[in-house]
What does this fold into?
Amino acid sequence: MNYLEAFRDPALAKKLTAAIKEITTQPWNIMEVCGGQTHSIIKYGIDQLLPEQINLIHGPGCPVCVTPLAYIDKALTIATQPEVIFCSFGDMLRVPGSHVDLLGLKAQGADIRIVYSPLDALQIAKQNPQKKVVFFGVGFETTAPTTALAAYQAKQQQLTNFSLLICHVRVPPVMHALLNSPDNQVQGFLGAGHVCSIMGYHEYLPIAAQYKIPIVVTGFEPIDVLHGLYLCIKQLEEGRNEVENEYSRIVKQAGNVTAQQLLQQVFDVVDRSWRGLGEISESGLALKAEFDPWNAERLFAVEEINPEEPTECRSGEVLMGLIKPAQCAEFGTRCTPEHPLGATMVSSEGACAAYYRYRRS
It folds into this structure.
């Protein structure tokens, strides 16, 4: 059995499912804060294997899904400027803006390119000195270090035709926001293993203590998710509220200190608006003032773009765990992956896209 097969082993999954059923005596609401975990849960039917008392809430763990409409419109505005090459991760191209998406602009002739890393965009800028190359930096603390490295290298090399549109977000503040919400239903968290591989999990310790809530850092494979759920439910049943690390083969408490130092060197922590959730204090990252020559928001004067979020899409309620995707009247009818109303139907990590692909109810 290879490494991947071990974490998808049906026999081990059966044992963990039985163990969860054995220890569960009452209803519990558990939120996974990771789109990869949401995808795994729906794809493998993990939620359907659990006791009916266990309700899994699909939280705001998809970086594409939480990018606010304002930043999509800023990206669209920049991408239409003369001599601009606009670079982005592929998932962002189909996220709806107020009137069009990046893929639509590309079809109309805008020079929009899919890259796998901001360092690819940096290379494009070197190869096209007569163009203005912009990278759209989105995502959690997982992708932020490579964006920071691109900004750092651009500054070191004085690459003046390269800039970044930054909309990176941080996980711990949104957990605080969810737990402080009057609509909060969350009693336990599965922490995002990829985020913790960078940031560690020391920031979760005060959250668990303050809100008396267990947090289990978990990976993405079915066995990871089931094991994380078992540990979380065990804590809930025993009245404990600790931070446990199920993903110890990857995650250490301190995280990647070098990556953290780079983030601190390039970014300031700022308030940030999240799609469907509103503004959350200290939940974002923004380029420090010394990086203003590489700050696309300021270079292209798009800072004031701030459209109203559409009301027909209920992605905010999905991201907060107030409804399941299929409870939205537009799900699977007016809102499909081919014609999405919101970002949760676009991204491969979005809850709506996962339900549409693997389950329609």
User: Anything to note?
Assistant: The mean pLDDT is 92. The chain has 17 helices and eleven strands. The longest helix spans residues 222-238.
